[in-house]
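Workshop exercise sheet. Pairs work together: one partner reads the sequence aloud, the other fills in the structure field after running the prediction. Swap roles for the next sheet.
Pair: D.N. / O.F.
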Amino acid sequence: MVKKWRCTVCAYIHEGPEPPDICPVCGAGKEFFEEVKEESGEKAAGGSGLPTWQLDGSETQVEVIRPAIFKISYGLYVVTSINGGRKNGQTANTVFQVTDNPMRVAAGLNKNNLTCEFVRESGVFAVNILGQDGHDMVRHFGFRSGRDVDKFADVAYVTGVTGAPIIEKCIAYLECRVLPEKTVDVGSHYLFIAEVVAGKLKVDAEPMTYAYYRRTK
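Structure field:
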């Protein structure tokens, strides 16, 4: 069976054994693709509740919506976590502040990713905020799975108060503890709503954004 890969930025569908290096529609890198799991039975026939354009592949509504979606600004971060003695991290663009008092953030992670599993198990994660020179960290943590390699074997880091690793090459970081019963299943991803328990601005520099990364990668 031919695999299908969905761009998490613009919803473009690619068919092949691996995701493309670059999305031909929006220019997103390989790390922003997720595998589409085929549904069966009633869901595949239309019982999932998804809009018709998502089920039949029609580009009509996608083309109308996409210009608006592109106006949402994203950062690029490395989200790290632990599970027992193991460490892992991944590139992520869905991290945002929810409230200031109490200080809470949310992070959206793909269910298929090892980091997501670690956060589910340990209940903690760190958001490593990259500077505009962080292209190598985006690639290092985004182009391969922690199931295949130890991503921290050749990356300098320190262990935070939660136990999650904080990479040396970040301009700021937040350490977070997932709130009880505040993990939201949003389909392909879990949205973790967490309390910020520690953090620091290390370098007062401009952060990496997804738009900047696309322009300069």
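Discussion prompt: Residues 4-69 form a domain with the Rubrerythrin, domain 2 fold (CATH 2.20.28.10). What would you look at next?
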